[in-house]
Design goal:
CATH topology of one domain: GMP Synthetase, Chain A, domain 3
Strand content: 15-25%
CATH architecture of one domain: 2-Layer Sandwich
Distance between the termini: 38 Å
CATH class of one domain: Alpha Beta
Helix content: 25-40%
Order of helices and strands: HHEEEEHEH
Amino acid sequence: MIEAEMRDPMQDETDTATDSRTPPATANGEGIPAVDPVALKEQVIEALREVHDPELGINIVDLGLVYGVELEGDTVHVTYTLTTMGCPIGPLIEAQIQQVVADIPAIEHVDAEMVIRPPWSPEMMSEEAKAALGFF
């Protein structure tokens, strides 16, 4: 399983320089470019920002509902929760997660898993979401 990690911005630029004579990395040896897992994870998270809680009008990332995004090959596993255990919008949220992530070209399979632990709390929201909802 690949978990994306943040790249050190202070890393020596010569480490990332490519020689024009060296062919680009391939995922399968057949000329298909390899996918950068860090960039792909960021792309998945940005796509998840398109999924909004219909009652609150705020995206599930800023609400703190997305607990994890893990990549394994062409499959992404999204772990998420709801604001309350009995929230009736669970199937809608999951369908939207499936839809927005499936639109990413490098992703073939989307595994969205709703979990109830740890329980969601307002402290998990981004500062923008807290401000939008009047939490100070």
